[in-house]
From TrEMBL:
InterPro entries listed in its UniProt record: E_motif, PPR_At4g14850-like_plant, PPR_rpt, TPR-like_helical_dom_sf
Segments forming a coiled coil: none
Domain of life of the organism encoding this protein: Eukaryota
Organism: Lactuca sativa (Garden lettuce)
Name of the protein: Pentatricopeptide repeat-containing protein
Length: 629
């Protein structure tokens, strides 16, 4: 097709407008085209104007440009549909798609991508199936879109078979990289490796995807091995490669020394290759040193970084929080705000989660205000952190208000609220919320059932607790673990059903643990059968050698039976092991002052007024009919 000089001239002008990203220039050229009737007559120029308006114009401009094109072709319709999708008008885009007189593979790709980006994955899959029913062969881009949102590995395998059936070339690096990434995300690493081996061409992204898949799935040895193999080829590692390997250098305590050594070697290699300025790699290094219990090296890396961004600050803040350095984390957060670094959802969630440690809880309320100001109150992770923070501070009503206002409640949110009610003594409300979860929420998991069993324990609701415990596997598909067994046994012991509790431990558990031993000693310690109490006390000493409870219980048990030699022996053993009773304390924050109260403390600042107030409160409780211990 030969273009006239005028068409070539205006096309060049429009290209210049694109390079300048100047809406004003586009409108001037567009007005000139309308004046010369070129927009109506020449579809190519009309499409060029429409495309520019779709990039940096308004919906009104795009609509007018689309309307001005007299002879619309498939490109005109595709561009206008892309405008509607970019404006989140998915309904309008789908209506336009259905009305299009002609649809090519780009049309299908656009609407599939629109549904996918809006979270309507099932609708996107249906469109992918309809696309082939209408005789349109998917392109490489189509497959890469579909593979990016596949929820089930079985669907991924079906797409893989579809690709082979449609003769997708193995030399297409992009599509096969997407397939490797899909299999890695679902943990099917043997299939990912099979695709990798069958590729005709391999690029750095292929290696990175495979190595990152091994690393995320916990196969760090395979990640190291393929990283070393990669270095023997003509593909040099980039910052993403090294950061993926560094991520795997953060495992169990038994391999910390080995992981730290490997991490240091990788960090040295990154410096040698000039990647230290890369914030993704620096963030990975900070995280790696922190998880290897080497927070000082994390701080050194952070101090060496000249240009901070949210990624680096998030890594440093989370590392400090995980190492119980919450005040330092707040300092870094304050410095990042001074540098105009906008906090992300991750930043706020991390800080809100630890803000309950600051008393008085002024920091938490300030962070809550910042969450609202930045528009993150609808984020489920941030909202769950706020609920957790308020429950830990005892502001259970504030926590419930935030929970009720959440648009999308995931299981973490439900679990946080259930545990919040439980820890604040609202056991009945915890059970009611559990019933609401069963009706309207997602399927409960082991954390949910832990929280509800704990509520039954705190409320001495033996029948409800046993009903839930025995129906865990059949009703909810959750196999009882030691944590669940410990709670139900503790509940049964407190309710005087020791023999049944011991029978459950014998049939379902591996024996008494520390919590169970403490419950038995608390309830039956002094007046129980002496030989049994001695065995339980000895077992608790094996679990917690420095725990004072078994010694105190044994002393009292021997005293009431007149076994004074045994009392002397226990006290001597306590002295030899340097075991002393821990003095309990509680604290309360009032304005900006923190007051602590130790157990059995008589003298306290303002003590007379304090104990007078306590006596008045006790009288009020007595008048209301409460039993005073």
């Amino acid at each position: 097709m030969v273009c006239s000089p005028r068409v070539t001239f205006f096309s060049t002008l429009l290209n210049h407008c694109l390079s300048l990203e100047s809406l004003f220039s586009v409108k001037i050229v567009h007005a000139q085209l309308i004046k010369l009737s070129l927009c109506n007559a020449n579809t190519f120029l009309g499409n060029r104007c429409l495309d520019l308006y779709s990039k940096f114009g308004t919906i009104k401009d795009a609509f007018q440009a689309f309307d001005d094109i007299r002879h619309k072709n498939v490109f005109s319709w595709n561009i206008y549909m892309r405008v509607l999708i970019s404006l989140d008008d998915l309904k309008g885009a789908r209506q336009l798609f259905d009305e299009m007189p002609e649809r090519d593979v780009v049309s299908w790709n656009s609407i599939i991508s629109g549904y996918s980006s809006s979270g309507f994955h099932d609708s996107a899959l249906r469109l992918f199936s309809q696309m082939q029913t209408f005789g349109v062969t998917p392109s490489d881009y189509t497959y890469s879109i579909v593979l990016s949102f596949i929820q089930s590995v079985h669907h991924g395998m079906e797409i893989h078979c579809n690709m082979i059936r449609n003769g997708v070339d193995f030399s297409s690096v992009i599509i096969w990289n997407s397939l490797i990434d899909m299999y890695c995300n679902h943990g099917v690493l043997d299939y990912a490796f099979g695709v990798f081996l069958n590729m005709e061409q391999i690029d750095i992204i292929s290696w990175n995807t495979l190595i990152a898949g091994f690393s995320k799935s916990g196969y760090k040895e395979l990640a190291y091995k393929h990283f070393n193999i990669m270095r023997t080829t003509n593909h040099l590692p980039d910052a993403f490669t090294i950061s993926s390997i560094m991520t795997s250098c953060s495992s169990s305590n038994s391999t910390i020394d080995q992981d730290l050594s490997t991490g240091k070697q990788l960090f040295s290699l990154s410096i040698k290759l000039g990647f230290l300025s890369n914030t993704i790699l620096s963030s990975a290094a900070i995280d790696m040193f922190s998880k290897c219990k080497n927070i000082n090296d994390s701080i050194r890396v952070f101090e060496e970084i000249n240009n901070w961004d949210s990624c680096v600050c998030n890594s440093m803040i989370s590392s400090l929080v995980n190492n119980r350095l919450e005040e330092n984390a707040m300092d870094i957060f304050t410095l990042s705000l001074n540098k105009n670094i906008r906090p992300t959802e991750f930043t706020l969630s991390c800080l809100v989660s630890c803000s309950s440690l600051f008393l008085p809880p002024v920091v938490g309320t300030q962070l809550h205000s910042l969450v609202v100001k930045l528009g993150f109150e609808n984020d489920s992770i941030v909202s769950s952190s706020l609920v957790e923070m308020y429950t830990k501070c005892g502001s259970i009503d504030s926590a419930k208000t935030i929970f009720d206002q959440m648009g999308v409640k995931d299981l973490i949110s439900w679990n946080t609220m259930i545990l919040g009610f439980t820890y604040n003594g609202k056991t009945i409300k915890s059970l009611k919320l559990f019933d609401e979860l069963l009706k309207n929420g997602p399927t409960p998991d082991e954390v949910t059932l832990y929280g509800i069993l704990l509520a039954c324990n705190y409320g001495s609701l033996i029948n409800e607790g046993l009903l839930i415990f025995y129906s865990m596997e059949n009703e909810y598909g959750v196999t009882p673990k030691d944590t669940h067994l410990t709670i139900i046994v503790d509940l049964m012991i407190k309710c005087g059903r020791l023999n049944e509790a011991l029978e459950i431990v014998t049939t379902m558990g591996s024996g008494l643990n520390g919590v169970m031993c403490k419950s038995i000693l608390d309830v039956y310690g002094v007046y129980g059968e002496l030989r049994f109490i001695e065995k339980v006390a000895q077992r608790l000493i094996e679990f917690e050698p420095m725990c004072v409870l078994p010694y105190i219980v044994l002393c009292k048990a021997y005293e009431v039976r007149g076994k004074w030699e045994s009392v002397a022996r226990v006290k001597k053993e306590m002295k030899d092991r340097k075991i002393k009773k821990v003095v309990g304390c509680s604290w309360i924050g009032v304005k900006r002052n923190l007051f602590d109260f130790k157990e059995s403390e008589v003298v306290h600042h303002g003590g007379e007024d304090l104990y007078l107030m306590l006596r008045l409160m006790m009288w009020d409780l007595d008048d209301e009919g409460y039993y005073i211990f």
